[in-house]
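Consortium newsletter contribution from the modelling node. Members have asked for a concrete example of what our holo predictions look like. Here is one, prepared for the adenosine monophosphate complex that several groups have been discussing at recent meetings.
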Amino acid sequence: MGTEVSVTLWHEDAGQGRRAIDAVMEQMHRVDKQWNPEDADSELSQINIDAANGVATVSTELSLVLDKALYYSRLSGGAFDISFASVARYYNYREGIAPQPDLQSKALKAVDYRLIKLDVSRRRLHFENPDLQIDLGGIAKGYAVDRAVALLEQRGIEHASISAGGDSRLLGDRRGRPWMVGIRNPRAAEGEVALVLPLQDIAFSTSGDYERFYLDPESGERIHHIINPGTGKSAGELMSVSVLGPRGFDTDPLSTTLFVLGVERGMALVETLDDFDAIMIDADGQVHYSSGLTD
Ligand code: AMP
Ligand code: MG
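And here is the predicted structure:
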C-alpha cells in the first residue's frame, strides 16, 4: 500500500498482545499483496488485464470493494473513480514524470466508472474500454484497517489504534482518555500538526497533496497523486481533507472524494451523510469544518 502501518493496543497478556499485532500485520500484508498494481502476479494486475480484454472473475472480497467504490462514484457524480488509474499509470511522482498531452487525452477517455461493469452476485467484471485500468489506492487502506480492527475485536481487545498511512481506526479509548489524533500541517515537515482531535471508537481518514508529489520545474505547480477524473490532472482546490465516521471502508473513499470536490461541493455532500464529518484545509491554509464539528 506504499505506506507505513502502525498498531497500538492494550492487552493484559504481553504474549497475546504481540500475537494480535502479528495478526494485524499479516492481514495488512495480505491486502497489500492482493491488490498491489506494481506486482504483475497480484489479483488486481490480473483482473486489469482480463476485464479489459473480456470478462474477469473476481474474489468475493474484491467484488465487495469494487461495489463500494462504484457506490461512491455514483454518490459523487464521478469525483471518486477507481478508473483514474487509466491516466495515473503514466505518472511517476518519484521521478517527476507526467504523460505527454496526446497520451493523456487518449487515456482520459478511459476514466469513467460507468464503463466498469460489475455483476456482484456472479463476481464478474468487464471494462467497456480496453484502455481502462483500476487502482484501489483510494479505498483499500480503509478496508484493511477495518478488517484489522475486526481481528482485534475477535480477540477481545477493547483499546487499540491502527493506522495505514492516512487511514486510522480507533477501538475504544486510550484506557480512560481519548486517543489524540493529529492532522498534519500540509506545508510543514512531517510530524508537525495543524490540529489535534481527541477521539475514540471512530474511523479517521486524511487525504493530502503532500503524500506523493513533485513540483513541476516550469510552472512550479504541485503535481500529486489525487486525480480529478474530469481532467486527469491533480485536484487543486485543497491541501488536505480529513473525514470522521464509523468505518474506514467509508472514510477512506470519502476523504479522496471530498478532496476532488473541494470546499463547497465537498461540504455539501458530507452534510447529506448522517454519520460523517469533515475538516478541510484549503489552498490558502484556511480550515473548514462540517456542521457536526463546529461546536
Ligand atoms: P488517499 O490515500 O485516501 O488520500 O487516496 C489517494 C489515493 O487514491 C491515490 O494514491 C490513488 O491511488 C487514489 N486516487 C487518486 N485519485 C482518485 C480518484 N479520483 N478516485 C479514486 N481514487 C483515486
Ligand atoms: Mg482516502
